[in-house]
Amino acid sequence: MVRIDRVSTRTGDGGSTRLGDGTQVSKSDWIMEAVGLVDAANCTFGVALCEEMPEGLPERLRACQNDLFDVGSDLVMPPGGPHEDKIPRLTAAYVDRLELWAEEAQEVLAPLTSFVLPGGSRAAAALHQCRVTVRAAERAVVRARPEMSGREEGPLPLAIYLNRLSDLCFQWSRMCNDNGKTDILWEPGRGS
Fold first, then answer.
1. Is 0.90 topped by the overall pTM?
2. What is the pLDDT of residues 75-100, one digit of tens each?
3. Domain locations in the chain?
4. Which of 20, 106, 168, 183 has the least CB density, counted as fewest CB within 10 Å?
């Protein structure tokens, strides 16, 4: 169980902070950029949840919000540290769940005939914001932890999770536009 006794510790006033294992890092370090963008992504999910959505979708977004806290926890605790057994590490099971949800979404979505412009309903627009924020977090994670993308065995579940979540946000945005029927489509060269 997490216990937070006070929010303002003043320990970061000098431009540095500590990872979960006590390692001191600059707040400008890519690991902190990644953690910040994961937090920003989580906030966009909170905004999206203020909108009307198809049945069942809010519960899935809340599950993803919880997962994003697990992502942040995984990021700030370097592997093999003293509290390894207490950290929720992202596993393939997290990714599998997103892929299942993506398959379910694809079954109800209208076929795509062009790229989709962000917008339509307020919920769709909010989910597009989730999509791009998660994608930014994914890029920051790969910069912060290069081993996540350059391993012989392939990327770690943490990077894959963020990639799939961004894709899923796109599908969910289309679900909020009457399963894609009211998407606003890109019209190439319209302004010329």
1. no
2. 888 777 666 677 778 888 999 999 99
3. 23-182
4. 106
